[in-house]
Amino acid sequence: MLAATVLGSGMASLDATVVGIALPAIAHDFHAQVDSMQWAVDGYTLTLAGLLLLGGALGDSLGRRRLFLIGCAWFTVASLACGFAPDVGFLIAARALQGVGAALLTPGSLAILQASFAPSDRPRAIGAWSGLGGVATAIGPFLGGWLISAVSWRLVFFINLPLAIIVMAIAARHVPESRGEKQKVDVTGAATISLSLAGLTYGLIAASSRGWGSAVVLGSILAGVVLLGVFLYAENRNPAPMLPLGIFRSRQFSAANAVTFVVYGAMGAIFFLMPVVLQEVCGYSPLEAGAALLPVTALMLVLSARASALAARIGPRLPMTVGPLLIAAGMVLFVRVDASGNYLTEVLPAALVFGLGTSLNVAPLTATALAAAPAEHAGVASAVNNAVARAASLIAVAVLPVVAGITGDVYLHPGELARAFHVAVLIAAAWCAAGGVLAFASIRNPGREKVKPSPARNRAPSGPAHPRYCAVDGPPLRPGVAAAVAGPTLDGGPAAATSPDAGQEPRT
Fold first, then answer.
1. Which residue, among 147, 447, 499, has the nearest Cα to 291 in the 3D structure?
2. Beta bridge partners of 489
3. Does an H or E element contain 84, and which?
4. Widest CA span in the chain
5. What residues contact 157, with CB distance under 8 A and at least 6 apart?
6. pTM of the entire structure?
7. How far apart are CA 234 and CA 26, in angstroms?
8. What pLDDT, in 10s, does the model give residues 369-385?
């Protein structure tokens, strides 16, 4: 189960980062400018972030394993379309379709773990999921660089085919089906949140070429904000919403997602810019640029599960405070990267500090967000946390290059690109450090609660003693069936006679 969920979500994460190392090759091949490179990344992130909530709700309703398998198949077909793209417009459209498949499989992977593992084992399972999934994210640039250097950037999309086949084979055999509360598909919610993100993203990216005062830019951003308000209003009025707004009544859940938005936004922008700078400014090959970030991979592999266990023991507040501050420190060290491109003195120290902070932050952040949500909303909670992370990256990739001056064909001018990159990492570092401060101010370590015995188990039976009962260990599915869950007896005693199924064969 863990292998299937890690490989599935890792496949989606891999494609979110592997394209970064391929951007210079794609741009040179298609003679594209910075805004097209942004759309090659954000076209994927847009549909992923916009439909993650729908994917989580559909998984809770129709079956998490079923949606996970459908998402894997969809993602694979879209990946093949990306690999055969004849121009940049086709590639962006295919990337958007890829995001739809990722939106179906990503929330299901984490919700499957949340619903299937015992509470005592969940922190370790989620830690392993976060750590190994983070490895997939971090190894993306290295794998992409090797494939680009060996054959072509197109191979970074074709590699998904064998991975998807393995994932679907494991999931079909070993992953149990699980569901939450069944509900109608919230088409209005899915449409409004997707269009809202599309409007915001288009306006922010278009600002690089049209200017912030353009009617198109302002109109798109305004439309995105209005549609976001419509989404929240519709969800509040809908009896079966895609996003139950009541889930945000938990201060811990809201705080964890606020920290997610801040930290993942800063990280997403740096992962977008770093491979381009290493190739265009430092003169690294695609393989060298990808290998430059391998220390991040190694640290996440070694430390993520330990960070999750530490957070479970001492509480998530300290790791979620120190982690973003270390990530910010690593970003500041990237200011030293220049045309010389010396790996040992310029890139490696920054990568080590960045990786240490990421390892300390990711698993506790994910576990805290999920633990604060009700179990029946595991899919929705997973989708919310993923959607917040993707939306943050989506907006940061659209905004930060424009603010730092990385527009047009500036990537073809190494000196200008280096200066703009230094501005970008300082902005991202300040933003990420703010995430650490926010975590310190808003995240609370859960108190230790004594487990109270279930009244149903301690209740004295009325009538003769009947020691043998069905081994049902869990809450009733509906409030009205508590008596049925507490009984009937296997030997047909009084509990069976007073249950709603009296006279029928006892059911477990």
1. 147
2. 469
3. none
4. 88
5. 15, 79, 80, 82, 83
6. 0.72
7. 40
8. 878 877 666 667 777 88
